[in-house]
Design brief:
Mean pLDDT: 83
Strand order of the largest sheet: 1-2-3-5-4
Number of strands: 5
Radius of gyration: 13 Å
Strand content: 35-45%
CATH topology: OB fold (Dihydrolipoamide Acetyltransferase, E2P)
Shape: globular
Low-confidence stretches: 36-42
Distance between the termini: 35 Å
CATH superfamily: Nucleic acid-binding proteins
Largest sheet: 5 strands, mixed, barrel
Length: 90
């Protein structure tokens, strides 16, 4: 049984491009340093940058930290290639 603290979390920086209902955001990831999952290729741009859906972390909701379109954020990526969790506003 693996301990979640010992697993390496994939983090990336991105830019908020769209605000969606239920504290969901569309985020354009910066650079190509993140491994791309094969099944999530439909959200890729022609320019090589990838857009994913991301939600606010619990601490950001609890402390009511606002995230707006155009903000730079740090995201912890889901290892299965689904969504990301916004953990920091930069």
């Amino acid at each position: 049984m693996s301990d979640s603290k010992n697993e390496k979390m994939l983090t990336a920086r991105g830019l908020i491009t769209e605000a969606l209902p239920s504290t969901l955001f569309r985020v354009k990831l910066e650079g190509r340093n993140v491994e791309e999952p094969a099944r999530n290729a439909s959200h890729s741009d022609a320019g090589g940058e990838k857009e994913i859906l991301a939600y606010l972390s619990g601490k950001m909701r609890m402390h009511r930290i606002k995230v707006l379109i155009g903000d730079s954020v740090e995201i912890v990526l889901d290892p299965y290639g689904g969504k990301g969790r916004i953990v920091k506003r930069l």
